[in-house]
Automatic annotation (TrEMBL):
The keyword Transcription regulation does not apply. It comes from Oryzias melastigma. Residues 1184-1237 form the RING-type domain. It comes from the Eukaryota. This is VPS8 subunit of CORVET complex.
Length: 1295
């Protein structure tokens, strides 16, 4: 097993990183060594060319992990209150990242800041040879070696005063050169071997801009830089004749959009020969898009990708990494601006072109200010709240969140604002710079380095073993085991230090998990509470023991489970009991089918002692029989009636399938035996599994022989024959027959099985038929069983005719006999005798079958009518028989005659269906049918269903006035409430006859409706008014009798109200056809009839109605002349008058409001019309569109021109020549555009109608040499509205 890395080594974790196993990724991606055993820590540290930093923590590693940094999620992070210490919380993947302080570098930085009053600003960067460079605000660059000792101090105070602060740093891949960019725009190159200044570049980019980024490419003679003007430049270093020079080329100009981030593709040593490296790719992030260009062999833009809409202050981020996708290693560019990370796969096609493929996006709920790869599957993101997120890219899972508040990141906002050169940058770039920390977070070789204002920090992925140990130290055993199992299965994220070979990986993790399980058990036993706290002890072991069982079985370590863990837990009775009870779920799920003998004995004893018989039975039937003490188990099972276990042991342990069936005196055993017999005959083992193939036939024969035994082994003289079949039939006849039915399904070509089948059927008939021990329902079940067998097409059973004499038994057997008839199982039986027996037993379905066989379809109707269960189906039967082909006309005629004979019964059953049947098939016999119906109520129901309007395409009867008048007469008798609806919907009656019918039955409202329809409004009104007066008189007589609170009085009042509503509605409908005097006489008559002191509400209703047709003075005069109110006080009629005045005020307000709205709409229309006719026109050309000459042919010419709203211009004379208008000036509205009317010639109407396309326009003008005349046209409705407005608002003005 690999050792954990030394916490004092900077690159130990990165070295272990290359040992991470990833089945879907090539080994080269992580540089997995081809060795049989993992490298040791000493071998890693002793490798040449890769020396390690001395890593110093602020405290020891464990204390730091537990207290120094918050690794909780954002939702659980503390508020920062110093009184509330930050607590460590384990994420789903454990603690993935280790954050440590580089004390040596931090001390040097703080000392330099104190001594020289420097302000730390920019960057550190690590390379393959372990160098870190840090720039300061005074123009100095510190270079630290592997021991965190200051190796070089590059620059001087004079350099800082001249160039400003260091704003960007870059080290080439072999750590021989350092490029420094400065806030005032200069660039210097240093030799890191001796600290010599090699170049000072002042003209690489426009002056007055700061260097934001400077990056070496894989080519040591080529670098790129980005300034605060948003431009990107290529720097090519040359040395000729001992002279060093630098050629600069602009790759992207800031005038096209400022670039604020650049990232060249720098390949690790193993991929230096990758085909993509020859193009020297460079990614650039502007404020609006991402660009990927190739610097070699020629400059070429390979891809542009615009951002989605985001906050302008979001910082663009870029990061390259080589990733294995589908067994091919290619670079992936990760970029983001806001909360979404995009991934672009860059690959070289066979044709030599670069192909960019968009991958799945990663969405977060925070704004990202830093983006770095830590390996090919894991990214480290920093959000705007300085929370660091470790994210697994394939699953998009956030593995850990770490608070960087204590780090105090350095932001390079001042350089994005270019303060050293006067702040001459765009507002957009300055806004992005508020959150820019490009140079403060950097990654290399599986490490993340952070620069704070007073410290430097390093983050590495924890070794897998270290992650587990950290959880164990915190006593999170369950989480630790879950994490270890994810390592074992290869599903863990951000794994460091495990073998790539799955077998070796599982072996290493398995050994670790065994140690953890033993440690967990010991911890649980030590954690047991003192005596007297049994509940706490049980809860403790309930959380521990199932976990121990689960992981022992997952590891397939039964020796660990039963030889080490069980003896340890058996010391505690509580732990032992929980262990034995926890075994049940694993045994039932077949994960555990063999137990050691001591465990079996303890299991039996514990379950038996605690009465857990059902659980014991479930365990026994899932265990291997060879691991059981058969004698002990069988005795326990028989004693406790564990019949499933008994059957299982006899079958599996002794190959005995008969003995369990002999003990069937128990009800529970009887139920199980039915299922057991079914399984045995079907070749399945009971209660689970299958019978061995070589025993299937033997078991079937043994079971059949057992069932058909004549006597049992210990039979007595009184025992009946076939005792076992009798017992099963008496126990549950239906289920036993169902078992036989399912068994017979499998018998096809087995001759012996078919013989057994016939033998069992014969025994069933012998035992059950004519046996008083069996109830009729049991015999009926036998009939059903036999019928189903005989129906089968491959049936070979023979049934004795004695069976069919059972038709005289109860009705439950009728369906069975019907099935037998349908499969012709009674061909030897006399059908006439069977028909007589069926009619006597009232088996109408059997009678129907026999009648249909003889084509006596009319007799079937009698069967339906006599059968109370199937009476309603007779209508469908008659309809289908008369509609479908295949029946002779003679047969159909007999059916029609039978229907007409029983029409009274059919209508009694369902009038609606009878009417449908008559309308479809008996429309020529309606008169005879009506004459057959003697019952008036029945006749009314039939006619209403027959004559009511029908929806859909169904047949309709020809209108017969006599039938409709008969229905009207019956409706007056039985349903007068529906009279009005019928009269309104039906038109097939004679008006005079209908009036006489309604008058005969005293239906006043219906008669009034007919009179109104006839035109006799006065007669209808007189009848309704008389009805109102009669009801008022009746109501008044009841009021005098002092029965005002009785239900009869309330009903009378309701009828008066209804009558009044009918009279008023009639008056509203017909007053428009009367003159003023007739209206007054009619409404006064209603007033006279309804006027009463006791009916003030109704009186007010009448007055409101009168106010709509009679003038207000006439109404008041009528009130004052009325004897009811004329002699009283004013207070009695005050309410009536006030109500009328309120109505008048309301109607006056409504009229004024309506008038104002109409006037406003008219004003709006006229205003828009005026705006349209006064709008100036702009000709499209200055020449006539017909003669193509200038509109003013001669300067002194007074020739008129015409301009249309479409923009075309013509001479008036030219339009007249083309017949596009009249010659008189008074007919300006007749001009039309020549070009527009010609292009729409197909759409023009008749010659007499003006064309509306471009003619008679409201914006048509005639222009003269000195004036402009406008011709506006109003349509007829607008002219009428204008005249009405002038009349309404005529005043002293002359307008």
């Amino acid at each position: 097993m690999a050792e954990s890395p030394d916490p004092n080594s900077l690159f130990s974790s990165s070295s272990q990183l290359h040992l991470m196993e990833e089945e879907a990724i090539d080994d080269k991606e992580f540089d997995i060594p081809q060795v049989d055993t993992p490298p040791t820590l000493e071998s890693i540290l002793s490798q040449e060319g890769e020396e390690a930093f001395i890593l110093e923590d602020t405290m020891n590693t464990d204390n730091m992990d537990a207290h120094s940094y918050d690794t909780s999620s954002l939702a659980s992070s503390d508020s920062g209150d110093p009184a509330h210490p930050k607590r460590y919380r384990v994420a789903a993947s454990g603690s993935v990242l280790r954050l440590s302080l580089l004390k040596g570098i931090s001390a040097q930085i703080v000392a330099a800041a104190v001594r020289r009053k420097h302000k730390l600003t920019i960057l550190f960067l690590t390379t393959m040879n372990s160098l870190i460079a840090v720039g300061t605000s005074h123009g100095l660059a510190f270079v630290f070696d592997t021991n965190q000792a200051l190796r070089l101090c590059l620059g001087s105070k004079a350099t800082g005063a001249e160039f400003g602060a260091v704003s960007a740093l870059s080290i080439n891949h072999n750590c021989s050169r350092l490029l420094c960019g400065f806030a005032k725009g200069q660039i210097t190159m240093w030799d890191l071997a001796n600290g010599k200044l090699l170049r000072t570049i002042t003209d690489a980019h426009p002056p007055g801009t700061a260097i934001l980024h400077i990056k070496f490419t894989d080519d040591p003679t080529l670098a790129v830089c980005n300034d605060s003007g948003g431009s990107v430049f290529e720097l090519a270093f040359r040395r000729l004749m001992g002279m060093r020079s630098c050629d600069s080329r602009c790759l992207f100009s800031g005038s096209k959009g400022e670039v604020c981030c650049i990232e060249p593709l720098r390949s690790p040593p193993d991929y230096r020969e990758h085909p993509i490296t020859q193009y020297s790719l460079l990614a650039m992030a502007s404020l609006t898009k991402i660009l990927v260009i190739g610097l070699k062999p020629t400059l070429n833009v390979w891809m542009t990708f615009p951002y989605n809409k985001s906050d302008p202050s979001n910082v663009p981020q870029l990061a390259w990494h080589f990733v294995s996708v589908q067994k091919m290693v290619n670079p992936i560019l990760a970029f983001c601006k806001g909360d979404t990370v995009h991934f672009l796969l860059v690959k070289k096609e066979e044709m030599g072109t670069i192909h960019v493929i968009k991958q799945r996006q990663l969405h977060l709920s925070c704004d990202i200010i830093s983006l770095n790869w830590i390996n090919s599957r894991t990214l480290v993101l920093v959000d705007s709240q300085e929370k660091l997120h470790v994210v697994d890219r394939p699953t998009q899972e956030v593995l850990e969140t770490l608070d960087l508040e204590q780090v105090q990141l350095v932001y390079n906002s001042r350089h994005f604002k270019s303060l050293a050169t006067g702040g001459n940058v765009s507002q957009a770039l300055a806004l992005v710079g508020e959150k820019a920390c490009y140079q403060s977070v950097s990654s290399y070789a599986g490490q993340i380095l952070c620069l704070g204002t007073k410290s430097a920090h390093i983050m590495t992925l924890r070794n897998w073993n270290e992650r587990i140990d950290l959880l164990l130290k915190q006593e999170h055993f369950v989480e630790a085991l879950g994490l270890a199992w994810s390592f074992h299965e290869g599903t863990a994220k951000a794994v460091v230090g495990l073998h790539g070979d799955p077998a070796k990986r599982k072996a290493v993790v398995s050994d670790k998990m065994v140690e953890m399980l033993l440690q967990f058990s010991e911890h649980a036993l030590k954690k047991c509470p003192e005596q007297g706290k049994a509940q706490s002890t049980e809860q403790n072991f309930q959380e521990v023991v199932p976990v121990l069982l689960e992981y022992s079985l997952l590891l397939h370590r039964l020796d660990l489970l039963f030889d080490e863990l069980y003896p340890r837990l058996a010391v505690s009775p509580v732990a032992k009991a929980i262990f034995l009870e926890s075994l049940e779920s694993h045994i039932v799920s077949t994960r555990l089918d063999h137990l050691p003998t001591p465990v079996i004995k303890d299991l039996l004893s514990h379950y038996h002692t605690n009465g857990m018989m059902d659980s014991l039975e479930r365990c026994i039937v899932h265990l291997d029989v060879t691991s059981l003490d058969i004698q002990q188990v069988v005795q326990v099972c028989w004693t406790n009636r564990l019949y499933d276990a008994v059957i299982y042991i006899y079958n599996r342990g002794m190959n005995d399938f008969i003995t369990p069936m002999e003990a069937n005196e128990d009800v529970v055993m009887g139920n199980k035996l039915l299922v057991y017999i079914s399984c045995c005959l079907a070749g399945r083992a009971y209660p689970l599994g299958d019978i061995p193939a070589d025993l299937v036939v033997q078991v079937k024969n043994q079971v059949f022989d057992f069932l058909i035994r004549l006597h049992s082994n210990d039979s007595s003289e009184e025992e009946d024959v076939f005792p076992f079949i009798r017992t099963l039939l008496h126990f549950d006849t239906r289920e036993f027959l169902n078992v036989l039915s399912m068994t017979f399904e499998d018998f096809k070509n087995d001759k012996q099985a078919l013989e057994y089948q016939q033998r069992i059927v014969d025994i069933l008939l012998q035992v059950m038929v004519d046996n008083k021990d069996f109830t009729p329902s049991q015999v009926g079940g036998l009939f059903t069983f036999l019928a189903r067998q005989l129906v089968k097409p491959d049936n070979t059973l023979f049934v004795n005719r004695k069976l069919f004499d059972q038709v005289r038994r109860p009705r439950s057997q009728r369906c069975v006999l019907l099935d037998l008839l349908q499969v012709e199982g009674v061909v030897q039986f006399n059908e006439d005798r069977l028909l007589v027996l069926a009619e006597k037993a009232q088996f109408y379905q059997i009678c129907e079958f026999l009648f249909e066989k003889k084509h006596l379809y009319d007799r079937i109707i009698d069967c339906y009518l006599k059968d109370p269960v199937r009476q309603c189906e007779i209508f469908s039967y008659i309809h289908n028989l008369l509609s479908m082909p295949g029946y002779s006309s003679e047969e159909k005629q007999r059916v029609r005659s039978k229907v007409l004979q029983h029409v009274q019964e059919l209508v009694s059953l369902d009038p609606t269906k009878s009417a449908d049947l008559v309308s479809c098939h008996f429309s020529d016999s309606v008169s005879s049918i009506v004459s057959e119906l003697q019952d008036q109520q029945l006749l009314f129901s039939f006619l209403r269903c027959l004559l009511e309007p029908r929806e859909g395409p169904g047949p309709a009867l020809c209108p017969d006035q006599d039938l409709h008048e008969l229905l009207l007469d019956l409706m007056c008798q039985f349903d007068p409430q529906q009279l009005l609806a019928f009269l309104h919907t039906s038109q097939h009656y004679r008006l005079e006859e209908a009036i006489l019918i309604t008058e005969k039955h005293g239906c006043v409202e219906a008669r009034a409706s007919l009179l109104e329809k006839k035109g006799d409004v006065h007669g209808a009104f007189a009848g309704l008014l008389q009805m109102l007066k009669d009801r008022l008189h009746h109501f008044a007589s009841e009021s005098l009798a002092e029965t005002s609170n009785s239900p009869e009085h309330c009903e009378s009042l309701r009828r008066v109200q209804e009558s009044l509503d009918v009279v008023l509605a009639f008056s509203h409908r017909n007053c428009s056809s009367l003159d003023q005097e007739q209206r007054k006489v009619g409404m006064v008559s209603i007033w006279s009839g309804a006027n009463s002191r006791s009916l003030k509400e109704m009186t007010l209703t009448v007055l409101n109605c009168m106010s709509s047709f009679i003038s207000l003075p006439a109404i008041i005069q009528q009130i004052l002349q009325d004897p009811v109110y004329g002699r009283g006080k004013l207070s009695e009629i005050q309410g009536l008058i006030l109500g009328m005045l309120d109505t008048f005020n309301y109607e006056q307000t409504l009229l004024e409001t309506t008038t104002n709205l109409l006037n406003y709409d008219l004003h709006w229309s006229l205003a828009h019309l005026r705006a349209a006719v006064t709008r100036g026109l702009h000709p499209l050309q200055d020449h006539c569109n017909i003669c193509l000459q200038h509109y003013k042919r001669r300067p002194d010419s007074g020739e008129e021109v015409v301009v249309f709203s479409c923009g075309h211009l013509y001479h008036r004379w030219c339009l007249q020549q083309k017949d596009c208008g009249s010659s008189s000036a008074s007919e300006l509205q007749q001009w039309r555009c020549y070009k527009c009317s010609s292009s729409h010639m197909q759409k023009r109407g008749p010659p007499g109608r003006p064309n509306r396309i471009r003619s008679t326009s409201l914006a048509q003008f005639i222009c003269c040499s000195a004036q402009v005349l406008a011709a506006a046209v109003l349509d007829l409705q607008q002219e009428q509205s204008w005249d009405l407005t002038r009349c309404l608002f005529r005043g002293p003005s002359r307008v």
